[in-house]
Amino acid sequence: MQRKLALGLLAAFLLSFCTAGSAQAKQEKTLYQRLGGYDALAAVTDDFLGRLTTDAQMKRFFVGASTDSQKKIRQHIVDFLCAATGGPCAYIGRDMKTAHTGLGITGSDWDLTVKHLVATLDKFKVPEKEKGEVLAAISGLKKDIVEQP
Question: What is the pLDDT of residue 148?
Fold first, then answer.
């Protein structure tokens, strides 16, 4: 009798555990998860930075940056994207306004940067829905980054 009761309790526990797990699985994944997680964001960042640092208009922002500074910029971008898309990262860099003040970033620079980001997202075949969510996540930063119209 005790064995039947124990088996019944075990079955009830397993059933409730499985039901809770399937309900959780039905919840929509975060943008971070849908983009492929940390490694995917790191790959996107590497491609994106490669585009910016070799673009005739944009490379002026990276001239003179040491290898260490370039790695730090890369890591800040990865962490920022990770945090902004619902991932587990903590962005510990300066706020966007402080980080970009004095660089003289124009509206044209912003537009070109977005163009390069879109090209990178297209290269990695990011679906339209997720691409739109990424662009929406960064669009609010324009007012803090662009200094000149």
Answer: 75
Q: Is residue 132 part of a domain?
A: yes
Nearest to 58 by CA among 118, 104, 124: 104
- Can you give the residue range of the structural domain that contains 59? 29-145
The number of distinct structural domains making up the chain is 1
Confidence grade of residue 64 (pLDDT, cut at 50, 70, 90): very high
What region, left, alpha or beta, does residue 19 occupy, with left being phi > 0 and alpha being psi -120 to 50 degrees? alpha
Tokens of 18: 């499985």
Grouping H, G, I as helix, E, B as strand and the rest as coil, residue 148 is strand
* Domain annotation covers residue 104: yes
pTM: predicted TM-score of the whole model, two decimal places = 0.79
From residue 5, how far is each of 1, 10, 12, 15 by CA, in Å? 6, 9, 10, 15
- What gap in Å lies between CA 38 and CA 53, rounded to an integer? 22
Kindly report which listed range (11-15, 67-71, 98-102) carries the lowest average pLDDT score.
11-15
What's the whole-number mean pLDDT along residues 33-61?
A: 97
The CATH number covering residue 48 comes to 1.10.490.10
